[in-house]
Amino acid sequence: MIPEILADTKTRMERAVEAAKEDFATVRTGRANTALFQKILVDYYGSPTPLAQLASLNNPEARTIIVTPYDKTALKAIEQAIRDTPNLGVNPTNDGNIVRVTMPELTEERRKEYVKLVRSKGEDHKVHLRGIRRKSKDEIDGLKSEVGEDELVRGEKELDALTRAHVDLIDEALKRKEAELLEV
User: Fold this and answer.
1) What pLDDT is stored for residue 184 in this prediction?
2) pLDDT for the residue 138
3) What is the pLDDT of residue 169?
4) Under 8 Å between Cβ of 68 and 87
5) From the DSSP assignment, how many helices (H) and strands (E) are in the chain?
6) Which of 56, 67, 78, 163 is positioned for an S-S bond with 133, CB 3.0–4.6 A?
7) How far apart are CA 102 and CA 66, in angstroms?
């Protein structure tokens, strides 16, 4: 029973680490990255639709993203959604067929703000991991009447090691993102 709980916990923690990495990718660095645009919602015929479903995103140069809509009538809505997105600080241009987004250089102050934002997101994801750990520990504790004390202690030690390993993975991703942000 304990191995099943630990396997389920490991799966949930791995998903949490992936979510953290995806969340970090949405924070802007000096280079243009199509991941920044993945969570932008465009008002398309009255319903919020992810930009990736409405257009293809290309990164031809270091600081330029080209958004090619599948439906040309959505061009204005896409341009407006990109302009209104907070923390991007971009002004897209529209030539009638595509939307061109040139990312401005980040100032030192803005880079430090982004580092704080990423650290905050990292802490939120670590809290989520600890929540997963707490739930799994409660499940293991619920087995007291069914398994021996040694198995419970061993299960808790494995759970702690699993949690520590996944927190370390989030810390590594956080360090990489910080280095990327502070790179000029």
Assistant:
1) 65
2) 93
3) 96
4) no
5) 5, 6
6) 163
7) 9
Quote the CA–CA distance of 96 and 134 in Å, as a whole number: 53
E strand residue ranges, 8-135: 41-44, 47-50, 55-61, 64-69, 93-94, 99-102
CA distances (Å), 139 to each of 87, 106, 148, 166, in order? Answer: 40, 47, 15, 19
Place of tokens 């993975």: 169
Distance in angstroms (rounded) separating the CA atoms of residues 126 and 21: 12
Residue among 93, 82, 100 nearest 39 (CA): 82
Supply the pLDDT for residue 181. Answer: 83
94 pairs with which residues across the strands?
Answer: 99
pTM flag (> 0.85) = no
Where do we find the tokens 């929540």? Answer: 131
Give me 84's structure tokens: 């209104």
State the 10-residue block means of pLDDT for the chain, 184 residues long: 92 95 80 80 91 90 89 90 82 90 83 89 95 94 88 93 96 92 78
Nearest CA-CA partner of 100 in 73, 74, 77, 82:
82
DSSP 103: P
